[in-house]
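Retry 2 of 3 after timeout on previous attempt. Resubmitting structure tokens to design endpoint.
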């Protein structure tokens, strides 16, 4: 039962990349995803997928991916539809990245991911007709915004299976022809495709035990001349400044390296990237990351020093994030 279920999860992806610059991925992806189905399925995955299957069948032309992630208008669904959607989608909590608007129902996520998108959008190359990879994509909020900017197709990879189901829940309301797909894989599991026009890695680097390997993995997905958009935690300092936290950073247990922007630029240079530039540095506020009705767990406000919000509870510099853009050489 699982095998046929999972084949259906990815058949649109297989069909979409036939004849595209990503078609050589078909040599490895089906076998790899079959192994995932056999060896790595989360115990709750089937129950989560049943939640998605119970969502009301609604369709609309009142969709907006350019300014938000919105499917349908309030007038196109009943109050009972919205109540049903709310009850079902709250079974897939916590919702981290968003927000999403579905037929007048708002999913108020922990992160205002739209703010990050607005910070980076003026600085990146146009996504029109580009093949785009979003590494560590979460539930896919930014993927929809990439599609809204005219991308030919958007592929996200993230091993967290709840995020896959959240993505499928949103995709349930989207036009079936949208060329957007999420695979439950990590970047280290991908072959060197060398085919994407733009690769995004946002909020991933500091979770990698070997950040240099991560940068090489990102580079290996880009076509010659392709663009990398890298967003990550940074600290103040010169190119030799790197924070290696203790057991936790802002209560996150898996933060390994937090470089300065200058250090990160230097790392990218050592990896053979060119046209490297920091385009934005922004302090994360408790308005951008916070607890909500859709993410009712502790959030940033709980992880900052109560007496000095420029520091985490561990005494490290509070979260500051940098956006760096670079290119693979032609």
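Retry 2 succeeded. Sequence:
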């Amino acid at each position: 039962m699982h095998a046929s279920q999972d084949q259906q999860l990815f058949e649109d992806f297989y069909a979409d990349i036939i004849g595209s610059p990503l078609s050589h991925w078909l040599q490895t992806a089906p076998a790899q995803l079959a192994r995932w189905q056999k060896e790595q399925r989360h115990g709750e995955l089937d129950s989560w997928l049943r939640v998605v299957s119970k969502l009301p069948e609604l369709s609309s032309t009142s969709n907006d991916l350019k300014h938000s992630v919105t499917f349908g208008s309030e007038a196109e669904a009943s109050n009972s539809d919205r109540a049903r959607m709310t009850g079902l989608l709250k079974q897939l909590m916590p919702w981290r990245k968003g927000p999403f608007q579905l037929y007048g129902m708002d999913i108020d996520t922990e992160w205002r991911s739209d703010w990050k998108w607005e910070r980076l959008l003026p600085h990146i190359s146009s996504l029109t007709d580009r093949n785009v990879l979003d590494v560590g994509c979460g539930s896919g909020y930014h993927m929809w915004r990439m599609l809204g900017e005219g991308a030919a197709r958007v592929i996200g990879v993230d091993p967290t299976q709840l995020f896959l189901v959240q993505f499928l829940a949103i995709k349930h309301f989207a036009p079936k022809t949208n060329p957007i797909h999420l695979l439950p894989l990590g970047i280290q599991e991908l072959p060197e495709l060398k085919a994407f026009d733009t690769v995004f890695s946002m909020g991933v680097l500091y979770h990698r035990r070997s950040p240099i390997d991560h940068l090489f993995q990102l580079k290996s997905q880009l076509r010659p001349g392709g663009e990398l958009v890298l967003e990550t935690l940074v600290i103040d300092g010169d190119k030799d400044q790197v924070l290696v936290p203790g057991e936790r950073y802002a209560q996150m247990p898996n933060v390994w390296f937090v470089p300065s922007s200058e250090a990160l630029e230097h790392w990218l240079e050592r990896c053979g990237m060119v046209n490297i530039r920091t385009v934005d540095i922004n302090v994360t506020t408790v308005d951008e990351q916070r607890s909500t009705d859709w993410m009712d767990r502790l959030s940033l406000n709980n992880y900052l020093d109560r007496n000095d919000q420029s520091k985490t509870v561990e005494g490290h510099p509070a979260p500051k994030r940098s956006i760096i853009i670079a290119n693979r050489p032609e």
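Attempt log closed. The mean pLDDT is 96.
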